[in-house]
Amino acid sequence: MLELDRVSVSYDGVPAVTAASLRLPEAQVLAVLGPSGCGKSTLLRAVAGLEPLAGGRVLVDGADLAGVPTHRRGCALMFQDGQLFGHLTVAGNVGYALRLRRTPARDVARRVDELLALVDLAGYAERLPGTLSGGERQRVALARALAVDPRVLLLDEPLSALDATLREHLAGELRRILRRAGTTAVLVTHDHEEAFAVADRMAVMRSGRVVQEGPIGEVWQHPADAETALFLGYARVLRGPAAAVVARAAGLAATPALAVRRSSLVVSPVGRLPGVVESARATPEQVRLVVRLEEVGEVDAVAPTGAHAAPGDVVHLTVDPHRLAALPES
Ligand code: ADP
Ligand code: MG
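Above: the input record for the complex with magnesium ion. Below: its predicted structure, written as tokens.
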């Protein structure tokens, strides 16, 4: 439905996005994940028609958008800071674009009610943005973006300004809302947890290029390379003999490099990999350890809360093969 075909964008001749290709089926959510400065916002702006293309094409339903101005593209944009009109009520903000289109007042009111119910803000219609929490403001901004039934909703780090607890909660809400509205959306984020929580597909960007793209579970289970794996939350990448030992303990075939999540190595009386605890830090969920394993070296591991594991202790680790990813040779 949305297709980017080798899209390139430059600023004064300096490439910001290089030959990015993506496909997004209707009613799905694509997360574009990458570190700050890798070109995510530039890519979104190119889709919206706010940056000219140095090369490639943006297509919606097979039609090339070259020459189609921003306001005719059917895209709605939403940013980190919502950018609500401070002097308008919540209802005034949500209905703004509909009134611009000279929609009859009764229809605007009905649609605003629907949208406020969708984002769980029924009863907030007459409030002013200044009286809302950050999370409520972002939900109003989302309702406003959805008001015009955009063909593609473009979300640029919509949760980044919120604190961690609220971000996690709203990520789940965002998924539910987009699902229910049947919206095709591109979500830009630098937070892999947010991408996992919201999206169906994921594209990983680095230095202006899309380095991997696919269904979210596939990207997560098969990172394209070590750098991508680390960006996706794997704690370490083991190579050579270290990769071989851990892969064997997990019952996997030998591999040149192995990405290991912290939670894949767990202290257990039945563990087969002996090692010595180098450091231990208790968290509410688990004890986080660094363990030195024979033939492997340092690894991250976890022990159940309350487990006694102090530096110098000998422990045994089990390996969860589902939290490992074999990487191609780089
Ligand atoms: P991200 O959203 O992933 O953080 P951006 O798309 O904002 O990255 O930026 C990608 C690159 O393009 C960066 O090197 C940034 O400095 C540069 N850039 C972004 N906007 C402009 C601009 N208006 N003029 C010149 N360079 C820009
Ligand atoms: Mg950005």
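Notes for the reader.
The pocket of adenosine-5'-diphosphate (ligand 1) is lined by residues 11, 16, 34, 36-42 (CB under 6 Å).
The first strand starts at residue 2 and ends at 11.
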